[in-house]
Design goal:
The protein is mainly beta and 390 residues long. 13% of the residues lie in helices and 42% in strands. Strand 7 and strand 8 form a beta hairpin. This is TolB-like translocation protein signal peptide.
């Protein structure tokens, strides 16, 4: 039999056509995946290297230490020092918000007058133009900062996959002594007058106290013993004279008394906030008053500055107040704007706090008399987290 050549069968032609049509897209998809993987890998490497470099930069030695008579703060002003701790010389003696102590008249090019203390730091009325300050930059990079008694607390947040947060304990030269890994967004930081007790608050969920959809995690560290309370939500709480238990309890804004045992803080539950007084040795807490947040104990331990909710809703809800612990009477301060900060006592008569900067950019440190008189004054523009080292 003689073999006879002929055209291939129809089925074979269709199969080859299908293979040809399907093969090119498949190869294209494979190439696209390889290219995308290479690009993502490169981006991840660059991102990681950049994050490492930033971390190294953030941990660089501080250009200064903790010295008495200096006002320390986190600089929010653009430039190399943005996000780092800076300082300015505090005016000699106790100064009030009007800048009366050690102050001299100044005016800008437009002729707007204010006052400037001996350091050149702005201390003016709300409608005055800021004057140049003489800050010293080069401190550690922190999201929140506080210092007292030769100890500083720096809360850091680092970019990465995933993002990381740390509580960094610093000595009097602002050198790292201990680093504690955290989760969440840094929010509040405090150090006791002796430098022994430290506390910080992180937002576990949410990022604002103005709503009810947030959760906090507050820790306390005894630097003398090294004992760390990772979350104080388990402290036995007495509310209105009765032991209280609820899964929605949140604590924040701790402030310590001079004995390093007594402390005050805010607790929230069922949509309400309370001032609590705590005892470290007994590890107990009891409510003292409703509608009081972010307490800050005065240097003489007789008064608490705090923010009080005076308006419903999430828009501008708070006003600063001071509570006399001897009489339990409170009075509002002259600052009428809503302050979402844990105010700091700069002396026995003056409170410092941060407010959003002009145009919503950065923040500025303002001061106001603690007795309810006077008017708010701009202390340092482009700054937050004030702490006066005594």
């Amino acid at each position: 039999m003689t073999d006879r050549a002929g055209p291939p069968e129809t089925g074979d032609v269709a199969g080859e056509a299908r293979e040809s049509r399907a093969g090119f897209p498949m190869r294209a998809r494979v190439i696209a995946v390889v290219v995308a993987t290479a690009v993502l890998t490169t981006v991840a490497v660059v991102y990681t290297v950049t994050a490492v470099r930033r971390a190294d930069s953030a941990d660089a030695p501080s250009a200064f230490g903790l010295d008495r008579g200096q006002l320390y703060f986190r600089s929010t002003r653009g430039g190399d020092g943005e996000g780092r701790v800076a300082r300015v010389a505090a005016p000699a003696g106790a100064s009030d918000a009007s800048g009366a102590s050690g102050a001299s008249g100044v005016s800008d090019a437009s002729g707007v007058s204010g006052v400037s203390d001996a350091s050149g730091v702005a201390a003016m009325s709300a409608d005055a133009a800021p004057v140049p300050d003489h800050r010293t930059t080069g401190g550690p990079a922190c999201e929140r900062f506080y210092a007292a008694g030769g100890t500083a607390l720096c809360l850091q947040r680092r970019s990465g996959i995933p993002p990381a947060s740390y509580a960094v304990v610093l000595d009097g030269q602002l050198r790292e002594k201990r680093r504690i890994a955290l989760t969440g967004i840094p929010n509040r930081a405090r150090v006791s007058a002796s430098g022994r007790m430290l506390s910080w608050t992180m937002f576990a969920t949410g990022d604002s106290y103005a709503t009810t959809s947030f959760s906090t995690r507050t820790s306390i560290l005894d630097t003398r013993t090294g004992y760390l309370i990772k979350n104080m939500e388990d402290i036995p709480l007495t509310l209105d004279g009765r032991r209280y238990h609820s899964p929605d309890v949140n604590y924040w804004g701790v402030t310590f008394a001079r004995d390093d045992n007594r402390f005050y803080a805010t607790v929230s539950t069922k949509g309400r906030t309370y001032l609590v007084e705590g005892d470290m040795r007994r590890w107990t807490a009891r409510t003292l008053r409703e509608n009081l947040e972010c307490p800050s104990l005065s240097p003489d331990n007789t008064r608490l500055a705090f923010k009080k909710r005076v308006r419903e809703g999430a828009r501008d809800p708070w006003q600063l107040y001071v509570l006399d612990l001897r009489t339990m009477r409170e009075h509002p301060l002259a600052e009428q704007r809503s302050v979402d900060d844990q105010a700091a006592w700069l002396d026995e008569h003056t409170l410092g706090y941060a407010l959003p900067g002009s145009g919503g950019k950065g923040s500025d440190i303002w001061t106001v008399p603690a007795d309810g008189t006077g008017a708010p004054a701009l202390r340092v523009a482009g700054a937050s987290s004030p702490a006066l080292v005594r």
